[in-house]
Design goal:
The chain contains 16 helices and 20 strands. The chain is of the alpha/beta class and 448 residues long. It has three domains: 84 residues, MurE/MurF, N-terminal domain (Udp-n-acetylmuramoylalanyl-d-glutamate--2,6- Diaminopimelate Ligase, Chain: A, domain 1); 202 residues, 3-Layer(aba) Sandwich (UDP-N-acetylmuramoyl-L-alanine:D-glutamate ligase), CATH 3.40.1190.10; 134 residues, Protein-Tyrosine Phosphatase, Chain A (Alpha-Beta Complex). α14 links the parallel β18 and β19.
């Protein structure tokens, strides 16, 4: 229960009370003045484009009487209400989440890594839900704002939090880990994502290892034995290590874009996610599920019924087959997705690609290397791409057809005229390049 007294105790700040305001009320925390009601406490966040403090009056007009605001605004508030003035609003949000998690006595599984975090999280959620009350993020809330908000939305009867810890810079996972206090920590892999901010894969490994900083005493670290930073992470882990590997999964048949047939404890199971990177994600989820003593029959059922997360190896079949993997991209995930495309033995294979971002000083080199890899591996017959960095990649490809465009709209129009029934098309790029729009446009175009 997030009562005014709970907020006062969590923040260690005495409120300023103006007018006659109820104290016996259960509140939910909100940072969005557009979606708020009188049973909410508005926590104002100052972002790059908007300052939440400018919307206090809007909240008051909707009946809100409880506010967590920055100290700088203490003398500017004239409205009636219950006000907590804090030095750091985002830190205050984390304090509330940490206190609330401790109040409901829930365990937590925390997941980080350069790729595969969300799919691994969703696999773990689907399996653990067979036995426990699980709480996880509704969206990709994995930063210092989204993660605490996710915790604060949990029901008191929650048994286990399954949470994704994201980052762009050193120190971010450290702060998230301190909020979450993981009992089980999963590191999927160490790749090139965010190398532009961190400078090297070694620094990325150190940043991901910050997940250990807030770990529960007596906790467990789940590490990828196939990753070349496994030994480094195992050495610095403060707790017992449980490893996972794609070798843990007994594959009966690789069915290309339709996923795999696997054997789990003697039962033949259809696993719908394509690509060996998803076998690695499944291996991690199975080790966590077995650790929490989920019945093997329930594990098998969860694997059978698992559906891909939107934008991550999402296969849509119709007159053409679309593989929407456009949520994010780095060199490793780009190659993995192209290998999924290449595994199909039907129709023309077309890749729609755009830039991989946040690679910093490595961006030219890594796009060149991807182009050279594509040129050698020939995972598809045709590539459509746009973006300045994709031009660098395209210039390295000589052995297959490549069409480069200086903007997305031109590419969409050319795709519409090029695509024919039976084609298999992959969409892959960093999220901000907007390939999901291309996917949606092509999907609706060919469904008519």
């Amino acid at each position: 229960m997030l009562t005014p007294d709970f907020i006062t105790e969590s923040l260690n700040v005495q409120p300023v009370i103006i007018g006659e305001i109820r104290k016996d009320i259960s509140l939910k925390i909100s940072i969005d003045s557009r979606e708020i009601d009188e049973n909410s406490c508005f926590l104002a966040i100052k972002g790059e484009r908007f300052d939440g403090h400018n919307f206090v009056k809007d909240c008051v007009n909707k009946g809100v009487k409880y506010f967590i605001l920055n100290k700088k605004y203490k003398n500017k508030i004239k409205e009636n209400g219950y006000f907590w003035f804090v030095k750091d609003n985002i830190k205050a949000l984390g304090q509330l989440a940490k206190k609330y998690k401790n109040e409901i006595f829930a365990n937590s599984v925390a997941i980080t890594g350069s790729s595969g975090k969300t799919t691994t999280r969703e696999l773990i959620v689907s399996i653990l839900s067979k036995k426990y009350n699980i709480h996880t993020a509704k969206k990709n809330f994995n930063n210092e704002i989204g993660l605490p908000l996710t915790i604060l939305e949990a029901k008191p009867e929650t048994h286990i939090f399954v949470l994704e810890l994201g980052m762009n810079h050193r120190g971010e996972i450290h702060r998230l880990s301190k909020i979450v206090s993981p009992f089980a920590s999963v590191i999927t892999n160490i790749g090139y994502a965010h190398i532009g901010n961190l400078g090297s894969r070694e620094n990325i490994a150190k940043a991901k290892a910050e997940i250990f900083d807030g770990m529960n005493k007596g906790g467990y670290a789940f590490l990828n034995k196939d990753d070349d930073f496994y030994e480094f992470l195992k050495k610095i882990s403060p707790c017992e290590v449980i490893d996972f590997s794609i070798k843990d999964i007994q594959i009966i048949e690789n069915k290309g874009i339709d996923g795999f047939t696997i054997d789990y404890k003697g039962e033949k199971i259809e696993f719908s996610l394509p690509g060996f990177h998803n076998i690695s994600n499944l291996a991690a989820a199975l080790k966590v599920a077995e650790f929490f003593n989920v019945d093997p029959k329930n594990i098998a059922e969860a694997i059978k019924n698992f559906k891909p997360v939107k934008g991550r190896n999402e296969v849509v079949k119709g007159k053409i087959t679309l593989i929407n993997d456009a949520y994010n991209a780095n060199p490793a995930s780009m190659k993995a997705s192209l290998l999924v495309l290449s595994s199909s033995n039907k129709g023309r294979k077309i890749a729609v690609l755009s830039d991989m971002l946040e690679l910093g000083k490595y961006e030219v080199k890594l796009h060149e290397e991807l182009g050279e890899w594509i040129n050698t591996q020939k995972p598809c017959e045709t590539i459509f791409c746009y973006g300045k960095l994709s031009k660098i990649m395209a210039d390295k490809i000589k052995n297959i057809k490549v069409f480069w465009f200086d903007n997305k709209e031109k590419m969409i129009e050319e795709l519409k005229s090029f695509v024919q029934e039976g084609d298999i098309i992959l969409f892959k790029a960093s999220h901000s390049m907007g390939l999901e729009e291309v996917f949606d446009r092509l999907r609706s175009f060919k469904s008519n």
